[in-house]
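hey
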C-alpha cells in the first residue's frame, strides 16, 4: 500500500491553514472599551517597566493614488499587490529630503548604483528581503522577553533577534540575512543597532 501521496496531501492542507489559526481568538490581555473593541487609549502594556512591543504589527499601507502620483499611471499594472507593500519598499527614504537622508556617503553611492542597475531588491532574486523590507511587506510579529525581542516577518524571511540584555555589537559579526542586532531603551523608545548583514552576490 502506498501512503506517500496521501501524506503529502495532508501536509499540504495542514500548511495551507497555518496562517489562519486563531484569527477570531479574543485575547483577554487586550484592554477593551464598553463596546468590546480594543481600547487604543488604554495604558501601554509593560515588561520590567518598559513598553511591551509583543503583538502583530503592520506598516501603514500607502494609497494607490500616491504610488501613481510618484511612479506614474503604469504602476498599478506593474505592481498589483498594493495591499501587501508600502511606499517604503520602493524607497525606504520615500518621504525624506535627499539632503537629509541618514546614510553614509558609501551607502548612498551603493544604493544609487543598485537602483540604477535594477539590483535593489534582493527578493527579485528569491532571497530574503532583510531589513527594513521584512517589516514593510505584509505583517510581522514581535515577541518580547526580558533579554531579547524576536521579530517574525510575515513574508517568510528569517526571524530577527534583537538582544536587549546590555551586550555590545560584535566586532567581527557572523554574516546573516537579518544581521546581528542589539537594542537599548531611551525612556520608552527602543533604539536598535544592527551589523553583519549578509551581502548578496
Amino acid at each position: 500500500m502506498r501512503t506517500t501521496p496521501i501524506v503529502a496531501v495532508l501536509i499540504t492542507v495542514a500548511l495551507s491553514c497555518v496562517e489562519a489559526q486563531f484569527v477570531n481568538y479574543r485575547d483577554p490581555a487586550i484592554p477593551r472599551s464598553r463596546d468590546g473593541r480594543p481600547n487604543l487609549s488604554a495604558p501601554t502594556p509593560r515588561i520590567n517597566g518598559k513598553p511591551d512591543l509583543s503583538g502583530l504589527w503592520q506598516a501603514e499601507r500607502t494609497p494607490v493614488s500616491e504610488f501613481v502620483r510618484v511612479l506614474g499611471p503604469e504602476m498599478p499594472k506593474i505592481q498589483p499587490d498594493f495591499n501587501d507593500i508600502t511606499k517604503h519598499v520602493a524607497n525606504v527614504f520615500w518621504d525624506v529630503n535627499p539632503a537629509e537622508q541618514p546614510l553614509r556617503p558609501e551607502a548612498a553611492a551603493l544604493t544609487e548604483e543598485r537602483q540604477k542597475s535594477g539590483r535593489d531588491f534582493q527578493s527579485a532574486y528569491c532571497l530574503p528581503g532583510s531589513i527594513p523590507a521584512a517589516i514593510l511587506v505584509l505583517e510581522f510579529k514581535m515577541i518580547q522577553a526580558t533579554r531579547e525581542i524576536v521579530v517574525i516577518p510575515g513574508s517568510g524571511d528569517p526571524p530577527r533577534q534583537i538582544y536587549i540584555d546590555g551586550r555590545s555589537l560584535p566586532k567581527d559579526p557572523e554574516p546573516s540575512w537579518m544581521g546581528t542586532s542589539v537594542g537599548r531603551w531611551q525612556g520608552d523608545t527602543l533604539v536598535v543597532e544592527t551589523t553583519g548583514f549578509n551581502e548578496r552576490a
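Residues 1-20 have pLDDT under 50 and may be disordered. The beta strands are 46-47, 50-51, 55-57, 140-144, 148-153, 160-163, 180-186, 189-195.
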